[in-house]
Amino acid sequence: MGPIRVAIAGLGNCASALVQGIHYYKDVTGKEDRVPGLMHPTFGDYLLRDIKFVAAFEVNAEKLDKDISEAIFVRPNCVIKFAETPKLGVKVLPAPIMDGVAEHMFGAFNVYDPKKIESVDVAQELRNSNAEILINFLPVGSAEASRYYAQAALDAECGFINCIPEFIVSDKGWQEKFHKAGLPMAGDDIKSQVGATILHRVIAQLLSDRGIEIDETYQLNIGGNTDFENMLAEHRLKSKRISKTEAVTSILDYPVPTRIGPSDYVPFLKDTKVCYIHAQGKKWGGMPIHIALKLSVEDSPNSAGVVADVIRATKIALDRGTSGPLLSISAYSFKHPPEQIEDSIAKRHVEDFIKGTRDR
Questions:
Q1: What is the pLDDT of residues 327-341, one digit of tens each?
Q2: Which end of the chain is more exposed for a tag (fewer CB within 10 A), N or C?
Q3: pLDDT digit string, tens, across residues 34-59
Q4: pLDDT, tens digit, 9 for 90 and up, residues 136-169
Q5: Alpha-carbon span 294 to 301, nearest angstrom
Q6: Could you tell me how far CA 236 lies from the centroid of its own chain?
Q7: What are phi and psi of 49, to 5 degrees?
Q8: Beta-bridge partner residues of 62
Q9: What DSSP line would sit under 56-122, residue for residue?
Q10: Which helix (H) or strand (E) holds 6?
């Protein structure tokens, strides 16, 4: 099979972990029984080394005109360097600023001066690079900018992967646009391999399956990367809180007092994310049960392995001529998919999609 030509909007920590990881796993052949960190060494006919990054769009002046392999380590990126990434021969292009930058983040993101640098036409650059798939890695709260990139993907005839909590793939209007254009889309709001949301879902499912009535639950998250700094602006978090909350409460068939979402920015944590999960309920005889759990992970690499699978699923959809939302990979890999499905069922659907016995 040929390469999977991928463009990235937003070259932050998540993009850095993804780019590093593709090189880290370059020698994986697909014949291995198990590869630590990978859910699918081979996804259909595709290996990770088939993924090629052909374009990147950014607003950080220090990242512009640098090779992607260099730009992924420019501050404020703080993801751990776990792979030596060779030059890719692709320079980072100036993106439209729009609402991708919160007022308090202009300094942190080192945003370029639009009086001195002109943003590119993203759709045209996607065409120029022959990109097949565009990934949206913009900061939380980028409502207008995310929809600009979704439209650019349509205009350039690219598949679209929405990794942030803007409801595009789960929106009927956008679904129809991509369906009519004959293009696949996957989203919204990427899950981690083992992160706060998936762990909280497992706890809620376990309690429900074992006959526990949940009285209340919360999930509090802190971290030190720019994602958490950006989310200090509460008005940018509406869709994020909805996405994370729905991902957990969709497990249950009754209402539960719930609070889920980012709690604070702690700079010295850098790319470490710490999550506290609380669940309280009643078991046999009305006796109480209380779960208090702490999870600590390197935040950005935690999502990269999931995105790597989504890229390959989207490529398979392009190969097959499948259009519109990819329901199986979206349900398994995102917090706010078009259809919420129990994780074990969604995993089976993904395997069926890979085999071709499920069309989306």
A1: 999 999 999 999 999
A2: N
A3: 899 999 999 999 999 999 999 999 99
A4: 999 999 999 999 999 999 999 999 999 999 999 9
A5: 19
A6: 17
A7: -70, -10
A8: none
A9: EEE-BTTTTTSBHHHHTTSTT------S-PPP-S-B-EEPP-TTSS-GGGTTTTTB--TTTSPPP-H
A10: strand 4-9
Helix (H) or strand (E) holding 350: helix 343-355
Domain 4-191+301-355: CATH superfamily is NAD(P)-binding Rossmann-like Domain (3.40.50.720)
- What one-character DSSP code corresponds to residue 330? H
DSSP secondary structure, 243-311, as one string: HHHHHHHTT-SS---EEEEEEEE-GGGTTEEEEEEEEEEE-GGG-EEEEEEEEEEETTHHHHHHHHHHH
What the block records as the tokens of 147 is 């929809």
For residue 31, count other CB atoms closer than 10 A to its CB: 7
358: which 2 tokens?
A: 């499920």
Closest CA to 267 of 219, 221, 229: 229
Which pair of structure tokens corresponds to residue 336? Answer: 């706010």
One-letter identity of residue 357: T
Between the alpha carbon of residue 227 and those of residues 58, 100, 119, 328, the distances in Å are 15, 12, 23, 27
Q: Domain boundaries in the chain? A: 4-191+301-355, 196-298
Q: Residue 215: what residue type? A: D
- Fold annotation for 196-298: Dihydrodipicolinate Reductase; domain 2 (3.30.360)
Q: Which of 260, 253, 265 is nearest to 200 (CA)?
A: 260
In sequence order, what are the beta bridge partners of 9?
57, 136
Single-letter amino acid code for the residue at 248: V
Asked if residues 317 and 327 have their Cβ atoms less than 8 Å apart, the reply is no
4-191+301-355 against 196-298: fold identical: no
